[in-house]
Amino acid sequence: MPTSTTITDSTSGASILWCYIASGTCTPATAYTAAIYLDPASAETICANATASGYSASSTVCNTYTNSGFQTAQVTGSGTTGTVPVFTGTSTVGNSPITVSGSNVGIGTTAPLSPLSVSGQVVIGNPYRGDASLHITAAYGCCGRYTQMDANGPSQNILNLMGSSDSNGNAHYFAWGVNAGSWTINPGEGFGPAFTINGSGNVGIGTTSPISLLSVGASSQFQVNSSGAVTSGSIISSGPVGIGVSPQYTLDVAGQIHASQVIYASGGITFPDGSSLNSANTLCGGDYAESVDVTGKRAQYEPGDVLVLDTGNPGKFLKSTEPYSTVVAGIYSTKPGAIGRRQSTPKSPDEVPMAMVGIVPVKATAENGPIRVGDLLVSSSTPGLAMKGADRSRMLGAVIGKAMGSLDSGTGVIEILVTLQ
Which domains, and CATH codes, for the chain? Predict the structure, then answer.
């Protein structure tokens, strides 16, 4: 069945018949300015006919042209199977660097192992630095932005991320590379090295030659050894520093502090009980106390109690229970200025600070008469309480100290100047 279509010339408006003759003839139903016929029976023949009107394809009038009448382009060359061809001249082709193996594409390799395999350098953008295996850049010159990976040479950076330059012309970039067996991160031109790991596993911040597990500063001013101990350096901070706690003070430590050397505190030291030490010659409280082990539980004792030797348990102490006791030893200190302890016995959780010298509060009773300032105080019959000593014959070795306050009646707490006699 013939196939035909009408082509209208856009300039003259003339109608042209295009007729593909698969079999039989092609007779136009209307008048055409021209008719073009293609006969597949003669593969190299094209008949172009023009009539005034009413032209029939069965007409014997036909101008026949063969392929010898046309310019034919000839392409020559050879290639390798699986390689994408490329024109090597105006009419010749050859192999390109691109190969196809199954669903993988290779550039520079004939055996791609992934969907895209590239052998050699990849440059995306302007090739400012041509020594990189992967180079992505947005502009020429030192001030552009680029990414560079796997540079050549044993002392070159493995990764460069380039940013804009500053007002002084220094380029800012992130560089990670190998230098003399060390990995170094450098923030850019005009800046020192930021981070280094050497072949020994030492980490340096601000130095390319860390001499300890952690070295900070160009001269390793701050150092941490392999055991995690700080061997050199100091912490300089404009804000609070906390160790084991969110800091509320310039230095806030949760736990005990051990100092093998002198502690210097120009502003004084304040302890949890509110007592303070303001100078090298001023103690926090007004007494010297000895840490002693008491008989029974510590909870049974209170600051201000009069303590005596426990004759049934050498080395331990009890509350006083009889008047004029000659085994009186001291007062349970409220806020000791200094505490000592014997080193010959193990420490007990039931120890209490016993004031032996100085000024401390003491529990007192007026059972032997009102107490006045200056009265000599001794133990009373009330457990743990002191009273005025009136019987001079019984006071030798029983005096605890001198009253610094008065008590007219009953019981109460007054200050005592501890002077054991």
Answer: 3-69 (no CATH), 124-224 (no CATH), 287-419 (2.40.300.10)
* Separation CA 49–CA 28 (nearest Å): 12
Pair of tokens at residue 176:
């990670």
Structure tokens at 86: 């490329």
Q: Provide the pLDDT confidence category of residue 403 given band limits of 50, 70 and 90.
A: very high
Distance of alpha carbon 317 from alpha carbon 319, whole angstroms: 7
Q: Are 158 and 182 contacting, i.e. CB atoms less than 8 angstroms apart?
A: no
List, for residues 92-126, the tens digit of each pLDDT value: 888 889 999 999 999 989 899 889 988 877 776 55
Query: Cα separations (Å) of 166 from 157, 163, 195, 313, 322?
Result: 21, 9, 21, 80, 87
- Residue 377 and residue 389: Cα distance in Å, rounded? 5
Q: Are strands 230-232 and 222-224 parallel, antiparallel or unpaired?
A: antiparallel
Tally helices (H) and strands (E) across the chain. Answer: 0, 35
| Region of poorest pLDDT, from 145-154, 252-261, 396-405, 407-416 | 145-154
Q: What pLDDT shows up at residue 119?
A: 84
Q: What is the 3-state secondary structure (H, E, C) of 395-408?
A: CCCCCCEEECCCEC
Find residue 330's DSSP bridge partners: 307
In terms of Cα–Cα distance, which of 151, 217, 206, 216 is closest to 178? 151
For strands 411-419 and 386-388, give the pairing: unpaired
Tokens of 310: 């426990």
Q: How far is residue 91's CA from residue 418's CA, in Å, rounded to a whole number?
A: 119
- Minimal CA–CA distance to 371: which of 385, 358, 357, 356? 385
Residue type, 317: F
Distance in angstroms (rounded) separating the CA atoms of residues 384 and 305:
5
What is the DSSP secondary structure assignment for residue 392, as one 8-state letter?
G
Q: Are 37 and 49 in contact (CB under 8 A)?
A: yes
Distance CA 385, CA 303 (A): 11
Which residue in the block uniquely carries the two structure tokens 């090597």?
Answer: 88
HSE (side-chain half, CA atoms, 13 Å) at 139: 9
Q: How far apart are CA 328 and CA 385, in angstroms?
A: 11
Residues 6 or more apart in contact with residue 297 via CB below 8 angstroms? 350
